[in-house]
UniProtKB/TrEMBL annotation:
Keyword DNA-binding: yes
Protein name: Transcriptional regulator
Record key words, sorted: DNA-binding, Transcription, Transcription regulation
UniProt cross-references to CDD domains, sorted A to Z: CAP_ED
Superkingdom per UniProt: Bacteria
GO MF term list: DNA-binding transcription factor activity
Organism: Mastigocoleus testarum BC008
InterPro entries recorded: cNMP-bd_dom, cNMP-bd_dom_sf, Env_Response_Regulators, HTH_CRP, RmlC-like_jellyroll, WH-like_DNA-bd_sf, WH_DNA-bd_sf
Domain Cyclic nucleotide-binding: 12-131
GO CC, any one term: cytosol
């Protein structure tokens, strides 16, 4: 992969200098996983930062032998940076939702480049603050109606990972959507069926795609907090 494409895929790298990008690509390790495969186990956090070149993953938390998705991540995102910075243990793992391609950069190499490239360091802080704001918004929405919460999940995925023209995203399993939204599977199924009836969304099972057809209406629904 050329450095210019790396910076285009990953917002984190948009301000990195060309030398940084070339160095990162030289030290990165490429991985590919089929859908359903564990990408990162809970005892492996803190060893590297992972960049999603293509595909979709879910971050899954396990407690008392019960597992649930707490986040859905797609192309252009990254994970593992918090474990590198705070070195605290994690009770989460990462599972491939689709066929996924990743680049990993070891902990020591990534910290080394953060000290060398102040622009990359600053950009990483910006994106971490953005994630914190999104987490705070989810907390504020805990008492919102299920349809509002689910619409918020959908538009967030569309804004973060959707194709620019039609906000098409991966057809995420309803159980994972429910878990990430913190509503029940039954509620998720009913709401998704209603959104499809209104033609606000369209599910393409052949291509494993979920099209957010009426993004404006979904955004209006999500704002009814």
């Amino acid at each position: 992969m050329q450095a210019i494409f790396f910076s285009e895929i990953f917002p984190l790298m948009s301000t990195a200098n060309p030398q940084t990008l070339e160095w990162l690509l030289n030290v990165a390790t490429e991985h590919e996983y089929p859908a359903g495969r564990a990408v990162l186990m809970e005892d492996s956090w803190g060893n590297a930062v992972y960049f999603i070149v293509d595909g979709w993953v879910k971050v899954r938390r396990t407690a008392n032998e019960n597992s649930r998705a707490v986040a859905i991540l797609g192309k252009g995102d990254f994970f593992g940076e918090m474990a590198i910075l705070d070195e605290s243990p994690r009770s989460t793992d990462v599972i491939a939702l689709s066929r996924v391609k990743l680049f990993s950069i070891s902990r020591d190499r990534f910290i080394q480049i953060l000290f060398k490239d102040s622009q990359l360091h600053h950009r990483m802080l910006q994106l971490m603050v953005r994630r914190l704001r999104q987490t705070n918004l989810r907390l504020e929405m805990r008492l919102a109606p299920p349809a509002v919460k689910l619409a918020h999940t959908l538009i967030t995925l569309g804004e973060n990972y959707g194709q620019e023209n039609d906000k098409e995203i991966f057809n995420i399993p309803f159980q994972d959507l429910a878990d990430a939204t913190e509503i029940s599977l039954e509620e998720t199924t009913k709401i998704m069926e209603k959104l499809a009836e209104k033609n606000w969304i369209a599910i393409d099972e052949v291509n494993q795609a979920l099209k957010l057809v009426n993004f404006k209406q979904l955004t209006n629904l999500a704002s009814r907090v």
